[in-house]
Amino acid sequence: MNPTRVEVTIDELILHGFAPGDRHAIAEALQGELARLLREQGVPAAFTQGGEVERLDGGSFAVAPSAKGASVGRQVAQAVYGGVQP
Q: DSSP of 38-52, one letter per residue?
């Protein structure tokens, strides 16, 4: 089995209701969780056909008021990954 090399670049991520200071923790957790999902659950067809996914709507999800940036980042990654699944 040949591993597939995938490069994911998120130019802009819009999240409403989070403190600006949480952005680094959210970004790091998003990166780690998205890498894990790609590794463990596979690369979605939208990523293997070349080209770009111009825009992706990851939908919405509920976050507990006490949620930390790392938890939020994991949820965002799951929404992004789910958004490219058929």
A: HHHH---HHHHSSS-
Burial 46-71 (b: 16+ CB within 10 A, else e): ebeeeeeeeeeebeeeeeeeeeebbe
Q: Is residue 6 part of a domain?
A: no
Q: Tell me if the pTM is above 0.85.
A: no
* Residue of 35, 23, 12 lying closest to 70 (CA atoms): 23
Phi, psi of 23 (to 5 degrees): -60, -40
What pLDDT score does 4 carry? Answer: 66
Domain count of the fold of the chain: 1
Burial class (CB in 10 A: 0-12, 13-18, 19+), 34: buried
Residues 6+ apart with CB under 8 A from 18: 26, 69, 72
